[in-house]
Design brief:
alpha+beta, about 25% helix, globular, binds 2-oxoglutaric acid, Phytanoyl-CoA dioxygenase family protein, dioxygenase, dioxygenase activity, Phytyl_CoA_dOase-like
Length: about 280
C-alpha cells in the first residue's frame, strides 16, 4: 500500500490507513508501505552497512565466489546501537508506532536490532522458515495472538534480480501454535505447493510482518548487496525480562520518551556492540 502525500508530510497516518494496515497484518500476515523514508537517509544507511558487510566478510573469511551459509550468501548481522541506525526515524517511526501499538499494545518493546543481507553470487534460497518457533509446542493446538512484529526497511530497490525476500502470506501465520514447531511440519516440502511471491520493495519502504509468516531469502544475481534492516517489536507480556540490546547511556539520554520506553528493558549504559 501507499500512503497519501498529506500523511507523509505530517508523519501521521489517518485512522483508516492504520486500520487497513493492522487488518492486513492480522489477516494476511504482513503489510508493505511503499517509499516512506527519504532516499538520502536510505543511501547513508546503505553506505554504512556496506562498510560493515565488507568487514564482516573479511573477518569470517567468506568469499562470494566460493559461497557461504550453505550457498545462500545471506548474512544476518546485528547492528550497533549508534547513528545512523538508532535514529528515531527508524526505531520509533511514527507510522510503525501507529500500527504496532494497535497490535502489540502501546507498552510494546523493541527487542531486536539487526540486518539481513542477500549478498551477490548466492546459488540457493534459504529454507522456508518462520522467525519464531512454537510458543507452547505441541501442548497447545490453537492459534495465539501476535506477539512479535518484524519491521524490515529495505536499503536498496528490491526486484527479482537482487534477492527479494519470498513470502507466504494469507495464512501461514495463523495456524495452530504447534505448526511452528520444526518437528510438526516440513515447511520446505509444503511451500512449493502453496502461494508465495517475491516481495519487490522500493528502497525506503516499510514491511511489517507477523514473525510467524513463512518466508525465505533468495539468491542475489546483481553485483551489489541487498540489505534489509530488521527490527523486532514484542508485546511486553512476552518480551524477555532483560533484553540484550546494548545501548550507551548518552544515546539513551538523547531519546524521546517514546524511544526510551521502547528500549526500557535493554542493557542501558552498556558499550555499543561491534557488528563483526
Ligand atoms: O531479508 C531477507 O531476505 C530474509 C532473510 C531471512 O529470512 C533470514 O535470514 O532469516
Amino acid at each position: 500500500m501507499r500512503v497519501s502525500a498529506e500523511e507523509l508530510a505530517s508523519g501521521k497516518l489517518l485512522p483508516a490507513t492504520i486500520e487497513l494496515a493492522v487488518q492486513l497484518i492480522q489477516v494476511n500476515g504482513y503489510v508493505l508501505i511503499e517509499e516512506v523514508l527519504p532516499r538520502t537517509q536510505i543511501d547513508q544507511l546503505n553506505n554504512r552497512i556496506g562498510d560493515f558487510l565488507e568487514g564482516f566478510m573479511a573477518k569470517n573469511e567468506f568469499s562470494l565466489e566460493e559461497g557461504f551459509h550453505d550457498g545462500t550468501n545471506h548474512i544476518g548481522m546485528y547492528l550497533p546501537f549508534e547513528q545512523p541506525f538508532c535514529d528515531e526515524s527508524l526505531i520509533a517511526h511514527p507510522f510503525v508506532m501507529d500500527i504496532v501499538d494497535q497490535i502489540l499494545g502501546s507498552d510494546c518493546e523493541l527487542t531486536y536490532f539487526a540486518s539481513n543481507t542477500s549478498m551477490p553470487k548466492g546459488t540457493k534460497s534459504q529454507d522456508v522458515h518462520a522467525d519464531m518457533g512454537a510458543r507452547f509446542g505441541s501442548r497447545f493446538g490453537v492459534n495465539v495472538p501476535i506477539t512479535n512484529l518484524v519491521v524490515n526497511y529495505p536499503l536498496v530497490d528490491v526486484n527479482d534480480e537482487n534477492g527479494p525476500m519470498e513470502v507466504w502470506p494469507g495464512g501461514t501465520h495463523l495456524h495452530p501454535d504447534s505448526w511452528y514447531s520444526c518437528k510438526v511440519v516440513n515447511k520446505p516440502e509444503l511451500a512449493p505447493h502453496m502461494l508465495s511471491f517475491k516481495a519487490h520493495m522500493p528502497a525506503g519502504s516499510i514491511m511489517i510482518r507477523d514473525d510467524r509468516m513463512w518466508h525465505r531469502g533468495t539468491p542475489n544475481r546483481s553485483d551489489k548487496p541487498r540489505p534489509n534492516i530488521a527490527l523486532i517489536y514484542s508485546s511486553t507480556s512476552t518480551a524477555p525480562y532483560q533484553g540484550g540490546l546494548q545501548i550507551p547511556q548518552e544515546t539513551y539520554d538523547q531519546f524521546s520518551d517514546r524511544a526510551k520506553q521502547l528500549v526500557r528493558k535493554q542493557k542501558i549504559g552498556a558499550e555499543v556492540i561491534k557488528p563483526y
